[in-house]
Design goal:
This protein is an alpha/beta fold. It folds into 2 domains: about 5-65, DNA polymerase, domain 1 (Orthogonal Bundle); about 70-340, Aldolase class I (TIM Barrel, Alpha-Beta Barrel). Helices cover about 35% and strands about 20% of the residues. Helix 4 packs across helix 5, helix 6 runs parallel beside helix 9 (about 235-250) and helix 10 packs parallel to helix 11 (about 305-315). The two termini are about 35 Å apart. Bound molecules: S-adenosyl-L-homocysteine.
Length: about 350
Amino acid sequence: MREKINLKDLQFNETEALMAELEEPKFRAKQIFAWLYKGAENFAQMKNVPHSLAEKLEERGCHTGALKPVKVQVSKLDGTRKYLFELDDGNTIESVFMKYKYGNTICISLQAGCRMGCRFCASTMEGLQRNLSPGEMSEQLLAAERDTGETINHIVIMGTGEPFDNYENLSAFLRIINDKNGRNLSMRNITVSTCGIVPAIRKFAEDFPQVNLAISLHAPDNETRSEMMPVNRKYPMDRLIEACRSYTARTSRRITFEYTLVKGVNDSRSHAEKLADLLRGMLCHVNLIPLNKVEETGLDTTGRKDAEAFCSVLEKRGIPATIRRELGDDIDGACGQLRLRRKK
Ligand code: SAH
């Protein structure tokens, strides 16, 4: 039997090649590709696609890759919606829909599970199950649009998984979602967050200089960082910071450093001072994130007052910093929590 084809895994030129293979005119690729990113769930909804072509596509094992959420949690505080999707093979992934003043944003997952092992994170507790395909990435946005009836124009890749551990599919996804024949979503409206895989940061600056980059830093020195994030043993901080400096030089884009405050681990005044020294002169912004408590880790959240003190140390030393507004606080906000809870 031939393999199934998720049409959302295909680039536009690959869709054209498929039409050629099915002995269909080229313009059918344009129609189908456009429908996919308007959110069509099946071929019947593709109004200008004839039944005969729909049959050929089905025979060839093609499908739209449409997903329905198996669970939706809606925040009563701010309308944030958290989705749990089940994939064809039974794996589950999470996405979060958020409303901001500047528009609607979807936070998507790039892997089922994660193998980075960050100590405070729920997504990595059961390791990596598998990489997501480009179509499974796009579909998280499209399914949320179908559910909310709203248009989503910003993507943050901060869900489950390490994007640079799935670089090839990430690249394919960025090209597909940006394609003018389909969604045409601007690269400037996309942010990718990484735990700091140095060679990939360098490659990303070359491949996608318009996409925003966020780095999960979480500590100002190797000792603290290696304790929190095993990836730091492979790519220590001097190499990471050097890659960040060459990223800003290459792209002229401001890097966001994410810094999750964990009580008694990385939140002292001297941590803040060291962080300010480390980032001095860099085109950047520090996003301080109060730890979302994950029971299993035994780690605790830094209080509001201490977070504010940390923030003002940075600001006084000329490092732009803010404390992240917590959306969806009442619905298992932290990465991977919904997924983890379901299994219990
Ligand atoms: N693998 C990518 C994206 C993952 S999650 C990365 O590491 O950047 C997005 C952000 O949430 C990361 O900064 C991550 O470290 C942080 N995070 C994970 N678990 C958290 C928790 N329990 N509380 C607060 N932030 C968390």
